[in-house]
Structure formats: structure tokens, C-alpha cells
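Review form for a predicted model. The reviewer records the input and the model, then writes brief findings.
Reviewer: anonymous (R2)
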Amino acid sequence: MNAIDKSMSSDISLGLLLEALAASPHLPLVFHYDGRSVKPGYHVTEVKAGQFSALDCGANPEAWPEIFVQLWDVEEGGRTHMPASKFAAIIKKVTEHVRLDGSAKLTFEVSDGVRPMQLYCASSPSIRDGTIHVELLARAASCKPRDRWLAEQAHTAACCAPTTPSCCG
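Model under review:
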């Protein structure tokens, strides 16, 4: 079995992102996806929270909270990348109307208004050249039973023989 390489993304929560941004609120916030940076005029067009219940391919019940932040990657004359404090203020405004679980899985929906919206997970922010950078990586489909099995195998002693999970048909 091959694992999906998730090492590039820590799949951070909204709470961890906001905590990191609070340390440098005045710095510009730039998201990167598909090998490019969002344009300086990007908008946070929607923030939604959901509670999901599902059955995975191994017939295991799953439940999780998730927050979606929609970014519209557009150029608007003369605008610069928003400061981290503005992004945090947008999220704060949303919390006045929508309950956001800071520990929830965080997903970014990004589109330039032409291409279809795509889903991304975020890595931990880093500061370079006076700017906060957040890498967005495509959110790939995965088999949860297999992922759990692979995680267990990573913690199993070398003397133990792995057992293949029954999943995915």
C-alpha cells in the first residue's frame, strides 16, 4: 500500500491559522496555490461551517466539523494583499453570525471566477520578506480505513507483520 504524501501540509485548523496570524497582524497575507500567489485584490467571499456525518468505504461511520473559506482570486486596481488583521477581522465578523469551531478541519475553496472552484488544505503560515505566506495544497481524495491502517503500521514494531485492511470493495 502506498500512502498519500501529506507531509507538505499539516492540514491546520482555523484556530491555528488565526493564532499564527495574530503574531504579525500588520503583515500582508498571501495565499499560494497551483504554483502561483493569489492576486493582490483577492476577496474572502464566504466562510461556512458544517458538521458532516458519513460512512467511509470500509463501512465505518465518520463525523467531523469543517470550515470552508472561499477565496476569489481577482485583481482589483491598486489593491495590495490584505493584512493578516483584515483576514482575522473577516473571520471575527462571521463568528457574530455563525458558530465556528476553531479546531475544525479547514478547507479553502479557490477560484479566479473563470476556472471551477477547487479545494485546498493549508500549511502552517510562514513569514518571508515581510509577508505571511500560506501554501494551499490540493485536497486529495483518500481512503480513510487505509490511512488509519498505514498510520497504525507506522507505530507498529518491526517484528509485527502487517495485515491488509478490508476496504474499498
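Findings: Residues 1-9 have pLDDT under 50 and may be disordered.
Further findings: Residues 90 and 96 are 10 Å apart (CA to CA).
Recommendation: see findings above.
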